[in-house]
Each structure stands twice: as C-alpha cells, then as structure tokens.
Design brief:
It is globular and about 75 Å long. The strands form five sheets. A five-stranded antiparallel beta sheet has the order 1-4-12-6-10. Strands 3-5-11-7-9 form a five-stranded mixed beta sheet, with helices on one face. The protein has a four-stranded parallel beta sheet with strand order 13-20-19-18, covered by helices on one side. It has 473 residues and is an alpha/beta fold. Helix 4 packs parallel to helix 5 and helix 9 packs parallel to helix 10. Helix 4 links the parallel strand 15 and strand 16. It contains ten helices and 20 strands. 24% of the residues lie in helices and 22% in strands. The chain folds into two domains: 145 residues, Jelly Rolls, CATH 2.60.120.380; 314 residues, Glycosidases (TIM Barrel, Alpha-Beta Barrel).
Length: 473
Amino acid sequence: MRRRSIRFFAVTALIAVPILAGVAWAIGSGRADDAVRDSSRRRETAVLENRREIRDLEGRDGSSALYRIVVPEGASDLVVTAIARRDATPVDLYLRFRAPPDRRRYHAKDAGASAVKMVSIREPKAGTYHVLIRGAHGRYSGISLMASYAPAGSVFKLGMHAHRLYNGGDWNGPESPQPQFNYGVIRDWDISHLHDAAIWKSDGSIKFALVDRVYERHAAHGAKVIKTFGSVPTWASKRPEEPNKQYPSWPGAKSGPRDLDEYEDYVYRFVKHTKDALWAVEGWNEPYACKPERHEFATMTPTELADVQKRVYLATKRVSRDILVFSPAQAYVCGIPIILNARTSDGEPMWKFFDALAWHAYNRSARGNAGPSYAAEVSEVRRHLARAGLPDMPIADTEHGWLAPPKEGGREFYAMSDAEKGEVLHETALLAKSLGVLTVAWYGYENSMLGKPMASAELSRRLQAMYAEFNTR
C-alpha cells in the first residue's frame, strides 16, 4: 500500500520547456507508452498543494501515478520535484498543462537514472498542470513529490556578502573592485570596520560616516541592507575579560550586552539613522551549534539571547513596522530548535520577537550535484517550525556558500568551471524563490566559497542575470 504524509520540502531545476501562446507541445523521443496512457485513464488524479510535500510514494516497475496542481493568475517559477531517498530507485517525471502527460506528450520532463528529478516553468500560465511519475527503472519506494510556485506579489531578494567593498579594505587586502552586477541585498555582518564592536564608542556615540558611505554605494547596485546585530564592544559587554577566538581584539564581544536598556537604545539609534537603507535586521550571527553549550559566535545562554533578540525587535519596530526582523541565524539546522524553544527571562518565546527564521545553508545545491539537496534542507527547516506550531513562518537563507573539502559537496563545487558554478547558483535561486524563501545572501564576493565573482566575468554575468530574473522590489 502506498503510504502518504504531508510536509514542506524543496526543489531543483533541470528541464524547463516554456509554454508559448496557445500552449506549445514538447515531443519526447521514443514511441507512445500505452501503459502510461491506460494508467492515466484508470488512476484517479491526486491534488498537490503549493509547497506541500507528499512523502514515501511507492509503485511497481512500469507503474505510474497522476497528480495535478492549480496555478493561479500571476504566479511564477512553477517547480515540480520527485526525489528518491539515498540508494533508492528513482522515477521519471513529466509535466503538462491542461491534460495528463505521457512519454510522448508533455511540456517538461526529467527522465534518467538521477535520484533528483525536477522540471520547471519560469512563467506558467494560470490553470491546471498535470504531473506524472513513472517507475521506469524498476520498483520504486521512498519517493518525495512536491510542486511549488511563487504567488503574485511574492517577495524574494537575491544578495551577497562583501568584506572589503567600499570600506577602504582591511587587514586581508585592499578595497575590492566594484561589482559588475546588481544585487538585491547586502548583509552587513562581515563588512570590515562596520561591526557593532567597532562603531559603538565608549562615550555612547556611533561612528556613522563609514556606515553611510558603504550603504550608499551598495544602494547604487539596487541593494537594501540586512543589518546583523552580532557583537558588542568590550566596554559594553557582560563579560569584558572573556576571550574571543573569532575576534581576539574584542574580548567579551560574544557575551552580550551588560545593560539591555543601553543596548536597545543603541539599536534604536542605529536603525533610526539607517532606516532608509534597511530591508531587515537580524539577531546574533550563528550563536550555537547543535547544542546550546556548543558556542559559536555567542556565549550567552538561550535565555540571555532571547532577551537580546526582544530588544532588537522592540527597537526596530519603534522606528518602522516595515523593517523585517530575522531571528538569530543558526549555521546548523540541528540547532534551530534552540532558537524556537528559547524564552526570555519573562517567559516569552523568542519567536514572538522575529518575523522570519534565518539560517545558513552552506554546501547545499538544488540538484544535489554540489553537496546535499537544498530541497531537503528547506524541508527540515520547515519541519522544525511545524513542530514549534509555526508552520507558516517565513524563512531566510542569510548566508549561503560552499566550504572547501572535506565538507560535503566542496570537492564537486571547487572542481566546477565558473559556468557550471553559475548554473548551480541559478538553480538554487530558482528553487528558493519557488519555495518561498525570502532571501538567499551568497557568501561571498571576494572568496572562493562562491567562486570569487570579484574576479570572474562569467559569474558576474550570471549574477546580473539572476538579479534581473528573480529579484523583487
């Protein structure tokens, strides 16, 4: 018996045949498959809901199953994926507008031995799309199927990080050359000289001159700012003698603020001054690993972190309700429950004080050809939210790049040409937008974790194309 359960999931991109006016026919190779057509007539068509996964599908060799999804007017980026578990037999995937597909008649298909199957239509017509999965490679089980699209009015910003751009350079090198592409967001976390610990002075003043210049120059590329409040200066820290392995010159910076009222006032003044440049603010960067005692960029307890997040939220919303507030961004999905379960010292859940859950998806690719599946990663993030009673909370991928080997996927990504890397980025961006991820902020402009766009005309060209194709205002 086929077992079904519903959950969120994510997707990838392979073959996309555009639907032209009047609906174009895509003709597959080989003869018509009578078994598929007969099965299409016999089998009842199941309904797929946007961004909801059907899991653990199984079937006989040569069998098929039909599904359908209704795409509303104005939607974009229709993606359907069928993903086999590791070492499981894959299926073939077909998509057709208005009528059930078969092996000869379809608008998009993905057939072959790969475990991840994906079809996409960038600008789908409004109406019903029919999906067929077929056991063309033997008996199959453990298949996850999902269809997703971005509804009209969806928000998606594709952006990046840059350490030495427009700030005069730093200890690692001179100022970086100007990008030859536009981008929707710049994340102010690793912009040298702009850390909170560097600009918040002991007399209470804030050094805005360089902040203003950097933000203004990024705005010329179409970018709004995600400001990460992720450190405090030693003089304002709770434990000023505490060593800081990431930033040794700022002891105590990871311990959090000594005075929450003082800290909220700092956040308020910063947001008020830069509000026209800001799209979102974010709580602490990568506070924990998988357990709260495994500190990364914070040595606060979850309760202390929740108190800090509350003050970031309250200060920001006092300035403008339109500026989004993201959660502290975990680098490991296994650590997300720490954020969702944390409570303030008054017993309030931390999630009351952010609009979207942020996390970092390193070494994850849409097709699984440069690290594990991004689709599976998004699915796991949303499972954590569902368990916390927050199934509809937005999510934001605020740091996404590829670490070098032995990190999984590193060898594959670093061996790719710039054109191949550009395709991985394009497919991942398409997938993220279709799945409703608010932003993907690539890491980063000057380093090899993204292929070093600063020095690559090909990657710059692809990033400009992605900005034009995916970014929303």
